[in-house]
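Quick one:
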Amino acid sequence: QVQLVESGGGLVQAGGSLRLSCVASGSIFRLDDMGWYRQAPGKQRELVAAITRAGSTSYSDSVKGRFTISRDNAKKTADLQMNSVKPEDTAVYYCTANSVEPSGYGKDYWGKGTLVTVSS
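Output:
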């Protein structure tokens, strides 16, 4: 089993910055893709940013140019730097990771989420 724990959420004013962190622990052979999703009240969960083990990144159009995802494979962490935040960024942010076993079998894990509230 793999556990993902997010931190860094909170209240921030529009235009400000926030950094979310995710740390993975448990029985880990290798972590492949990691990512951040978010879910705003009354909306579906959406992918915000993703990063491969090699460091290739992708972003949703709504955050491109404002958010940056990074990871540290040795520390088993993935961070999301959020700049120029907007009220519409308000959501619960979830970390996700694909954990691969020696057999090659991969499974997706999710954290419990951290709330980000952007005030106008």
